[in-house]
Each structure stands twice: as structure tokens, then as C-alpha cells.
Amino acid sequence: MLPDKDGPGVGGGQSSPEGEDPSVSLFRDYLRLKTVHPEPDYGEIQKCSSVPICRSLSLQVCPGRVVSIMTWEGTNPSLKSILLNSHTDVVPVFQEHWKYDAFSAFKDAEGNIYARGSQDMKCVTIQYIQAVRRLKAEGWKPMRTVHLMFVPDEEVGGHKGMETFVKHPEFQKLNIGFALDEGLANPGEPFTVFYGERNPWWITVHCPGSPGHGSRFVENTAAEKLVSVIINSFLDFREKEKHRLNTSECFTLGDVTTVNMTMVKGGVAYNVIPAEMDVSFDLRIPPTVNLQEFERQIKQWCKEAGEDVTYEFAQKHMNQNVTSTEENDPWWSTFSAACKAMNMTLEKEIFPAATDSRFIRAVGIPAIGFSPMNRTPILLHDHNEYLNEQVFLKGISVYERLIPALASVPAFPDEA
Ligand code: MET
Ligand SMILES: [Zn+2]
Ligand SMILES: [Zn+2]
Fold first, then answer.
1. Where are the domains of the chain?
2. Binding site, annotated residues for Zn(2+)
3. Is 89 marked active-site?
4. Model ipTM value
5. Assigned CATH for 199-286+288-316
6. Which PANTHER family does the entry mention (predicted)?
7. Per the confidence metrics, is the pTM higher than 0.80?
8. Which CATH architecture has domain 10-197+322-407?
9. Is the peptide bond before 38 cis (omega within 30 degrees of 0)?
10. Does the beta carbon of 253 sit less than 6 angstroms from any atom of ligand 1?
């Protein structure tokens, strides 16, 4: 249970080290919760996801998977609300490559806090909470309702999290008009904001072939199809896209398609030619690509490999909605004006990976991906992920300005 004031309290409530800002202590306590895949312990989150703002709701969307929502009701609750979304899970670590225990939240002499989730995205969760607490303490009241949402399983595709929850009647009841979710750090002075995402396609191609003795020139083997056609076609395309990215000044990673071969399966013995070999790819496709045409291309590669070559998807996101960043869009203009008033420079991009925003945008709600971290290397999913405490604290002040701005967007003509 999070305390009403600024003090720490998550996961056993360790006291603040001498002179440490209580928000930093709370952040470090939260980082120590092992919500790490493949078996995230979400138990403590359920206990602690509570700020006495107004009402809170916990919904088991799937067995063992809870979405928690804390609602700060607006003075005009019939207006569309603001969603502050964050996921509670983190990706695994290779501890032997870390300087410190990835779940100890060690802070070095420069104030860098090392932990899995320090950038992705436990920082944002605590920043939302602390900003809301400060606003509440100041006596400020939102006009539009503000929801803080804590979602499990983003890192494994969101099937038991946001993908399911956006179809739930309770989600509809939240009446969301605009959402904030995670972004990425920016190593320079500006902050990066994301108005869309690439579509993740996770594909496995099955290549059957003639088996036989490993000493012979058997015709039509699985390995020939796999290597000469499938792997070559996908990786040639990868080279072309890499070239396109490297030769265009204005492109970022989110503007091209990435292809990575991530798994290969097949074979039982050195001297037995296998009857099937499979290969899997992680594809990330920008919203500007014609997805039907792209799939036709994949079909064509498979056909060239052999009539019996088939494919299946483990992820195939098809929605290409992007959020308006036109100056006449009330949400965007409010968001960007608030940032400008804080002297922040914004860089607009397509998110290169995937977040829960894709499910929010797919149901027609505008969403901006934003994690207020500048002067910070991008270390999500990497060894030695860290965030500096000053950058973290600055982020709370950023939300302290952004939340009132967004919650005060005047009623639209179609709103009551
Ligand atoms: C495609 S599921 C999303 C998992 C993770 N956020 C990623 O981008 O890989
Ligand atoms: Zn994330
Ligand atoms: Zn992640």
C-alpha cells in the first residue's frame, strides 16, 4: 500500500537513505519488486497500487493477471477522461553482465539508479503517482477525470493484459479521450514523443523436405529451402531496409521495416537429413507500409521455396492508426504547448518496438508514447539499465504540468 504522503512504502517499506528524495526511495523500492518474466510476481503490485485519490478498481482480466485502475474523478466527470498508462512487468536479465544486482536498485555516486525496469517503465509509473500526489496536496482538482492504469504482461505481447482489457466493458466505462503511455530515453537534450508504432509480426516458416541418409545428395531437402530461399529472401530484404535507413537523413528506426532471424529449429542427428526445418523472424513494420502487399511478398518467397512451404504468425498486429500531431488537434496542441512552456524540445517519431499504445490506438483512442528521460542513453532491455535520479525527479515535475494541462482541455462540441 502506497502511503498518502511522499514517503516510501512499496515492497516492505524501506526507509529513505539519508538525504534522499522520498520519491527516489519509492522508485527504488518499486524497482526491487521482481515482476520479471518468465514468472513475474505481481502479488506485491496488487497490494501497493493504491493512492488515496478517489476510487480504485482491480480486475482479473485473465487468471493471475490483474489490471488496476486508480481514478481521480474530475469536476466534470461526463467529459472524456485522461489515461496515464504503465505496465508493471519487466524483461529478464543476464545477471552476469550487470555491474550490480538488477533488482537491488543500486545508486552510484553520480545518482544513477541501476535496475531492470528503471527506464522500461517503472520510472513512469512512480512519476505519475508522485505527480498526482503533489497535485492533490496542492489542492488542485482536475476538470476531466484522470485514470492511472497498471497493466501486466506488456512484455510478452499483452494478450493477458491490455489486448484483452480494451475489449472489456469496464474499459469502455472509463470513457477515455486521450492516453499517455511509455516512450524511450533520448541521449541528447530533446525529449522523444511517439505518435504511432510499427506493427509487430512474429512469423515462423515451416520448410518440409525429403529425408534421407546424411551421406547422400538428397534432392529437395528442408535445409535448401530454408537457407537458399527463405532465409536469403528475408535477410536480403533486411539489408535493403538497413541501407534505406542509413542513407536517408530524415529516417529513424521507426520509418523502415526491420527483420531479424531469431529462432531456427530442426534436425535430430548428424547423419539424418530432417523432414522439416523451421525458421522464425521478428518483423517490425511501419504504419506507412501496405500490409496486404507485404504479406503477398512473404507468400511469394514461400512459394519460391516450394509449394509445401507454409508459415504461421505468433503476432500479427494489423491496425495502423496513428495519433494526430497536427497543431489543430486539441490533445496534441495542449501536450506540446505544455512541453514548450517547460522549455522542452520534442522529437516526433514512430515507436520502433511495440507498447500497449497499439491496443489503445486500435480502439480509436489517441495515445502518445512519452517517458520523460533526456540526456539518457537508451538502455531498455539492455544490461545495466539505469536512470539518473535527477532525470527521474525532473520527470515528476513534467507530469505535474502535463496532467493539469490535459485534464483542462475544454469540452468539445460533442461532449456534454
Ligand atoms: C510484440 S509484443 C511487445 C513486447 C515488447 N514491448 C517488444 O516490443 O518487443
Ligand atoms: Zn515497456
Ligand atoms: Zn520493454
1. 10-197+322-407, 199-286+288-316
2. 87, 120, 155, 182, 381
3. yes
4. 0.97
5. 3.30.70.360
6. AMINOACYLASE-1
7. yes
8. 3-Layer(aba) Sandwich (3.40)
9. yes
10. no
